[in-house]
Amino acid sequence: MPLEKATEAATARQVLTLGLGDEEYGLDILRVREIKGYSVITPIPNSPAYVKGVMNLRGTVVPVVGLRERFGLPTVAYDKFTVIVIVTVGARVVGLVVDAVSDVLDLGPNDVEPPPEFGARVDTSMLTGVAKREERLVMLLDVERLVLDAVGAGLPEALTAAGVGQTTNSRLEATAS
Amino acid sequence: MPLTEKDLSRFEATFFEEAEEHVATMERALLALETSPDDSELVNSVFRAAHSIKGGAGMFGFEDLAGFTHVLETLLDRLRQGRDRLTPRVADVLLCSADTLRGLLDAARLRGPEPPGVGAMRESLERELDAVGGGANAHGAYQARDGHAGPQEVRDVEVTFEPGRELFARGMDPLLVVRDLLSLGEAGRVRSDLSSLPDLDALDPEVCYLRFVVDLRTAASDSAIRDVFAFVEDVSKIAIARPVPAAEGGTFAREGARAEVTKTVTTATTVRVSTEKIDKIIDLVGELVIAETMILSALASEQPDARVRLRDAAEAIGRNTRELQEEVMGVRMVPVGTVFGRFPRVVRDLAAKFGKAIVLHVEGEDTEIDRGMVEQLADPLTHLVRNAIDHGIESPEVRAELGKPAEGRIGLRAAHQGGRVVVDVDDDGAGLNVERIREKALASGLLDADADQDEQALMALIFAPGFSTAKEITDVSGRGVGMDVVKRTIEGVGGVISLSSELGKGTHVRLSLPLTTAIMDGLSVRIADQTFVLPLLSIVESFRLKPEHLKTVLGAGEVVRVRGDAIPLVRMHRELGIDVESTDPSRSIVCVVDTSSGRVGLLVDELLGQGQVVIKTLETNYRRIDGMMGATIAGDGRVALIVDPQGIARRATGGRGKEKEHAARESN
Hints:
Radius of gyration of chain B: 32 Å
Oligomer: heterodimer
Strand content of chain A: 35-45%
Low-confidence stretches of chain B: 134-151, 243-268, 472-481, 655-668
Largest sheet of chain B: 6 strands, mixed
Number of helices of chain B: 19
Largest sheet of chain A: 6 strands, mixed
Distance between the termini of chain B: 84 Å
Radius of gyration of chain A: 16 Å
Strand order of the largest sheet of chain A: 8-1-2-11-10-9
Strand content of chain B: 15-25%
Structural class of chain A: alpha+beta
Strand order of the largest sheet of chain B: 14-18-19-17-16-15
């Protein structure tokens, strides 16, 4: 699996780097639709804690996932640097709350290594690899996995009851395999 | 025809879609013919439909389908030429062949085997044909391509074809028509008349300026020649000169007008919009752009009147946005006739099946309703109409005894009423027997023996799951699944169903539906520190909670007493998992909502106001949330969730609403 992911990541690409605490993460720039300042979020009842709620993105109702909460990092108060990165996966639009965004990195095939089996604070199944650049260590997020997991797999019983989750679940399985 | 495989498969989908439409057209026209058998335009439309299907089927190589339609077409051609009147028997055969056509189309689409009964159907068509036309050889067997049949004498004709100027715009190609014509026989001269062709700079390439004169030596009858122009004749002038009197018989089997398949593809997810509507929308968008310019210039202006101009612009934007919203909503609207269209056939067939004489009155087919709503409406309406036929209308003998006209009447009406669409289904049949309903309800435990229910409440019991008063179970109705499903479906789209009936006089069901599923009236409420929207329609009443009305019932949770009734109370903040410090219910408000699991009181903290809300689905980007039907954007730009009272009631009562109500009643 890691080998496969490494091959996948081996092509040259650009990532948007963002900060969570003192760690640095990278998002495939092709997934990023826009970057917004923190907006008002309406909580959704009976949802996992990392789903912060839904926000209004020019008339579209978009769910917002807190990356700190998702990765079990200590939560912090949102401030003027807090940023919501809007990403698209398939037809879905989802917001990710991060502490800050820093820059865009050009990554060559040799910059990316497979994710470490342990030692990272993040569940490594959410990573596609780790990029090393001079002193920096950027963990590359599997955006698709992250988003589908956040919107689909939170409450399996509610999903099957609603009859909408099946597609999401099967897509999840497809990504997982 | 130089069509590649890819082209063909793309057109094939279009062919099936259009064939479905053609079968529907045939069916409609055949039913109309039963009441006015002399309307030649109706016969023509049936013929054109069959002809189109045959043409397409031949082109795509569906020989079964083409062969069957050919026989059908031949019979229709005879009717069309007035050689045979449409007897009820022929009408039956034709209607059945419409069903057979559907079966054949499905088989062709799935590349499956020929469905059963096609052979028998074809035989009975041929029998009719023999009965009216004198001999099986009169109609000639179907040949896939350019078949020449019939005993017509060979003669010379001059055919003048003047295509309408808008021919190209309709996706027709005159060349194909001319080629079709030439395939009928030996071509002499083909002349193109270019006299109306303008100079190059004045030429509109989308206008057809040509006229063709074709000398033809052919064995085809005049009607066979005219068939070539079946799809262009309404916009074109066709003349056949030096005609020899047409002999009987001799129709030709050829490919239909191929150009037809280039018409716009319509699927469930596309809408046909009149250009008029689009123009109106473009105009409105244009005005919005002007208003934007007004704002920008007013903002840049140092003049003292800048404020006034700004206000004018804001007003213009408000006005235009409202109009634009209306127009765009209008795009989603379709006439309710698209659902009503199926009922003449349903009524005809079921009436025959139950040996009843029934006339269906349809009114207001043009009433426009949201596309999504139309799809939801089909099943419940079918159920209501079937019920009326099966349980409502009595047999002719019984009606005669009762002094009613032998023919029963079922009415199907749609109308706009105060921003909603009202659909009425009524009959002049037996009406609901309230006593029987009471007995049934007692027997099935839906009703307590000592309960004193008024007539209206008893009638409402027919909407309860598992309820049926039919003495016998038929395959049409009486299984007790149905009215509850009807009610649930209608409520699911934000509609209200009501019922009135008089024993011996008839039953009247009224569906009141919102114009669209995209907008609804909502009541904004505060629950803890959050704003939620309740669908206004589901709210029966709301009042401030008095502590003495609040009771805790063992095993049933909290109930609130409303005029002697005890209804389950749901503390919304608890249900939604919102942490609050104060839980003083006496400062709260109870909104009583009507749901399929009974009435439930929702405890909220404050009523904030009501208004129209645009419903946004949460599923697009997130997923369905239990107890919520969607979200909307509030005036301040925040997202507010819309509560689904049905879902909340289900969650809160665990689907045991009735039992709890009973438990509560006993405990008092």
